[in-house]
Amino acid sequence: MPVISRLVSILLRIGELAFAAVVAGIVGQYLHAYDKANKWPQPRFIYTEVVAGISILLALFWLVPFTDSVVNWPGDLIMFILWIVSFGLLVHWIRPLNCGSIWAWGGLTQPGTCPKWNAAIAFSFLSAIFWIASAIVAFWFIHRMRRGSAPV
Fold this sequence. Notes:
Layout: H1 3-36, H2 43-63, H3 73-94, H4 113-147
């Protein structure tokens, strides 16, 4: 893999890891609160937590320099789809809270329910974007290799 493609791939993997960790933390805190209340949380949060966990594991594994993350573009594409579903589930849940536009990501560090869930939505969307970008970089690299224009 050429240096620039590898560098971009590493930066994307670091972003995927960080964004998944943020979402896992926010949703995990919510699930922990449900545990204390002896109630059953909605499945959308468990799904999001599982997607975040899988993302953390895959990003860590594919970040290792000796793994050829280029051949994993189908996995990147699947993770993109999983994150988009998670994004949609979180958006659907936050709508009745009247937190404003889902794209209004200012004030994410403020205390309160709306900023916390807006942060979860923002980072789940950013994670999806980074996963699709990883797939595009890998697919572009494979296409270049097949054309024979990339150095071996």
